[in-house]
Amino acid sequence: MGERILAVRGLKTHYYIGGRVIKAVDGLDFDLERGETLGIVGESGCGKSTAALSVMGLISLRAGRVVGGQVLFKGKSLLALPGEEMRRIRGSEMSMIFQEPMTSLNPVLTIGRQVSEVFMVHKGMSRREALDEAVKILSQVGIPAPGQMIREYPHRLSGGMRQRAMIAMAIACGPDVLIADEPTSELDVTVQDQVLRLLRELKERIGMAMVLITHDLGVVAETVQNVLVMYAGRAVEYSDVSGLFNEPMHPYTKGLIASVPGLGKAGEKLGGIKGEPPSPLDLPGGCRFHPRCEHAREICRIHEPELVRVGDGRLCACHLYNDW
Amino acid sequence: MAIYTIKRLLAAVPVVIGVIAVVFILTSIVPGDPARLIAGKTADPETIQRIREELGLNRPLWEQFTDFFKGVLTFDLGRSYRNNRPVTQVIMERLPLTAKLAVSSTALAVVTGVSLGVVSAVKKDSMLDHGGRVLALLGISAPSFWIGLMVVLLFCVKLRWIPGTGTGDGGWLYLVLPVITLGMRPAAFITRLTRSGMLEVLEQDYIQTAWAKGLPGRAVVLGHALKNAMIPVATVAGTCMAEMMGGAIVVEQFFSLPGVGRLGLEAILARDFPVIRGQVLLLALVFVAVNLLVDLTYPLFDPRIKYGGKRRHE
């Protein structure tokens, strides 16, 4: 067991929209060890991004509020930190990259300015020094001719290059944790591969831990060590990556894996999950997956299953495994 | 960009011709005969006829129109009916004061409008925001003569800080109240524009990125958001300045400032057609020039906007 760097306990993040409460994240637990890569998977709207923004202390940007739980980062309780201290952690010790490289860079500021300000804010460098550092970091993420690139505006870069620039900003201060929220979903498949390879490489070089949020199980399979499967705001399964693919336990995980072409057995009919994810405004009682579950029993409608140990380092929240 | 500028200037020619044509038609159909006004109430019909011929008012409108345009090309706008001085000279005398008024009012409007708009957007739905919005609504709705009265009442009568009227020795002090009065409406307008622009920009993904980088709030708002919200502000500031350059009739009259606006008013009352035409021509030219200048500043705010030149390569 390595050193635990990030621990999320019972995280609850709700949105308040028009007087209604949307429980986007509703009691989430996970741990991250130094140098580990954890994948968080689930359908759109299951609370993956909300969880990430809550950990970063940015959920207020989306009119959401963390209403319960704890986020422990290197032993510090982030949710209790004063805003100014949290700001100093953001972008230096813990940073985040986003899904849309097209819109995540400021269109009216040069790449150099956007990368160098991280050094100016967190390392107190002068503009000159920071720009020199920006050139170095841009070349580290594989951007060609970084000396010229710092004078360019984002619209002159391709999607892949922009995502590299985003990554450069995120890793500039050598963070302990990088949260990547769907970093490759908007990119072409070939570029996706390059960016994932770059992330793996940087992770090794810097020794940072990474949380990779994605709905793409293919990305998970080739990038992460451990996987957390989320459904309707909660974790339903946690496993190492090979265990998850070889022997998925939760019916939802099984459905997810069956629905990806090529991951199941050859010649097998493509499976799936019937029904729609529940509306966060109207979550079903008991197990949140029971209306879509083939194995649903009486107890599933009444009691919400706990996330319990079901094997070697594996966790699952399902009544099927209660008598494990 | 040079090609773009030339194209825009050429496109302005029909605009200016059209504006002058409309003024010609309007001045010819308004009641009141300049010759009669010049000759005085007791003049006999022969004298009036003689004056009409001297001024060329007996000639067909079409001829007067083409003559005027020939004059425009040689910077000769004719002579004032009232004192026989060249119109260009009369206007140039009045222009510096109006220009001072226009530039300082616009500067005041941009500075206060942008600051209030930013504060309002950042503190959305706070008391400050609500207060600012009420003030902005007031500034847009209140007529300038009323605002003029109120500032005179406040600064001259109650506080006794500033003299009420006159240009004195041309000192800036006398411009303070007219500038406040004139700047109020554009300031209010820019406040609203900045607020709505900033609210939209602050929702963008790149602002989320800026927060995620750990930038302090001031750097996010002023460094990342503001520039993105500035294009409509530049447009409005330009239009306001152009309007004021043509003369702020009410405010110049109210504060007895001898600017272009008052000149225009005097000319209209005296049916001094050459001066009216000259003033309208000036207004049209200033509008064209300021709008072009504003458009040329857009690339400073948004590098994705580029005029002519090499096409960007993707």
Structure summarized in a few sentences:
The complex is a heterodimer of chains A (324) and B (314). With 324 residues, chain A is of the alpha/beta class.
Provide the structure class of chain B: mainly alpha
Task: Name the structural class of chain A.
Answer: alpha/beta
- Principal-axes shape call of chain A: globular
> Regarding CATH, which class of one domain in chain B?
Mainly Alpha
Written as H for each helix and E for each strand, in order along the chain, the element string of chain A is: EEEHEEHEHHHHEHEHEEHHHEE
The helix count of chain B comes to: 14
Give a quick account of the main beta sheet of chain B: strands, pairing sense, barrel closure: none
> What name does the CATH topology of chain A carry?
Rossmann fold
Strand content of chain A: 15-25%
**CA gyration radius of chain A, whole angstroms:** 20 Å
Q: What's the total number of strands of chain A? A: 12
The N- and C-terminal alpha carbons of chain B lie at a distance of 20 Å
CATH architecture of one domain in chain B: Orthogonal Bundle
What percentage of the residues of chain B does DSSP assign to strands (E)? under 5%
Summarize the structure in words.
The complex is a heterodimer of chains A (324) and B (314). Chain A has 324 residues and is of the alpha/beta class. Helix content of chain A is 32%, strand content 25%. Chain A has helices at residues 48-56, 83-89, 111-123, 127-140, 146-149, 159-171, 189-206, 217-223, 241-246, 251-258, 298-302; strands spanning 4-17, 20-33, 37-41, 64-73, 76-77, 94-97, 177-181, 209-214, 226-231, 234-240, 308-311, 314-316. In chain A, strands 6-7-8-3-9-10-12-11 form an eight-stranded mixed beta sheet, sandwiched between helices. In chain A, strands 2-1-4-5 form a four-stranded antiparallel beta sheet. In chain A, helix 3 (111-123) runs parallel beside helix 6 and helix 6 runs parallel beside helix 7 (189-206). Chain A is globular. Chain B has a domain at 94-301: Orthogonal Bundle (MetI-like fold), CATH 1.10.3720. The two termini of chain B are 20 Å apart. The longest helix of chain B has 36 residues, at 87-122. Chain B is mainly α. The A-B interface holds A 56, 58, 61, 87-92, 95-96, 98, 100, 103-109, 117-118, 121-122, 153, 155-156, 158, 166, 169-170 and B 204-216, 219, 223-224, 227-228, 301-304, 312-314.
